[in-house]
Amino acid sequence: MDFYRNHKSLWLWGVLIGIFFLGTGYLCGDFGVIWRKAVMICMECIGIG
Amino acid sequence: MNKLRLRVQILFTILTNGYVYGFLKGKIYQGPLKYTCVPGLNCYSCPGAAFSCPIGALQALLNREGFHVPFAVLGFFFLFGSLLGRFVCGWLCPFGLVQDLLHKIPLFRKLKRLPLHHILKFGKYAVLFFLVFIGSVFLFGGFAKIPAFCKYLCPSGTLFGALPLLTANPLLRSQTGGLFGWKLGILVLILFLSIIVYRPFCQYLCPLGAIYGLFNRFSLLQIHWDEDLCTSCAACENACPLSLTVQEISRSPECIRCGKCVKACPVSCLHFTAKSNGYSTKHQTCVPPGTNTV
Fold first, then answer.
1. Domain with CATH 3.30.70 in chain B
2. Residue ranges per domain, chain A?
3. Across the A/B interface, how many CB contacts are shorter than 8 Å?
4. How far is CA B57 from the centre of its chain?
5. Tens place of pLDDT for every residue, chain A, 49 residues?
């Protein structure tokens, strides 16, 4: 409890880490992997594959 | 508040599943919006889905050859989680909306929790660890990497992806077998349970809820409890569909920030707030300049 009271801007660090991860993911080509998976019908999702 | 939440839920579901052509033709959207993820659980194989599902995307990244940290999806989790926490579950998740609507059906005696709730609530963490992480990395399918959560459990995929696609696409329909039967059984069970228990999938199985719950304590959006105003009438606790105490509201990983406690409070000691320096913005404006608040 005290940890959260004493670190009042943790959410801001979370946002910054999120933006950093998104940038790193972009450089690693993560978004291309996501897009390629998302534009094909996911056979596992619909219970066929 | 409840009507506002329902409107937001419906609007967000329509916005994220607005590709009407897909429903008509039994195909899915293949445009650039699918580079990004929606905050809630929304299957990217839904014919109307305009964006990607974060859990599906996480598994797709973990399914790659070798081991790679799924930076992009972790980025989405940190971003949405740090800003909103499980507000995403309460207000922005299409499958949450379905469960909410089913729970309104006046059938059976309503339960807030299942028996053994204190054990079952950890089920979502087990699903996250075993089906999403371990399953995706190496465990199932003869050590082949598969999206185990999507394949064996996800009811959102069956409801929003499989049923519309199979209805509109006879070729896909001809390929269904035992796995589809299994997933359909899980969907029916969860939908049936939703009539009796409030959001059983969110409470016990959803890996996305498990992730966002970790952010609840320090996310920007909070439900602020003004202890000085509180009369301990317990109206908020009675209104809470998840049976949380007033101390647990907002901060507990179980709280989905539906706002029913805020509406129920007769003295308005609970309110949504953007947290700043440990106090609510409302609280800060009430304190005269120069007043020692410590």
1. 221-286
2. 2-38
3. 167
4. 15
5. 556 555 678 899 999 999 999 999 999 999 999 999 999 998 888 888 7
Q: Which fold would CATH assign to domain B221-286?
A: Alpha-Beta Plaits (3.30.70)
Q: What is the DSSP letter of B37?
A: B
Separation in Å, CA of B178 to nearest CA in chain A: 8
A48 and B180 within 8 Å at the Cβ level: the answer is yes
* Separation between Cα atoms, residue B34 and residue B36, nearest integer Å: 5
Q: Give the tokens for residue A32.
A: 């291309």
Whether A23 and B165 lie within 8 Å, measured CB to CB: no
| Closest chain A residue to B141, measured at CA | A49
Q: Quick check: B71 and A28 in contact, CB under 8 A?
A: yes
pLDDT value at residue B63: 85
B121 phi/psi in degrees, rounded to 5: -65, -20
Q: Tell if the CB–CB gap between B157 and A11 is shorter than 8 Å.
A: no
What's the CA gap between A43 and B14, in Å, rounded?
Answer: 24
CB contact under 8 A, B215 and A44: no
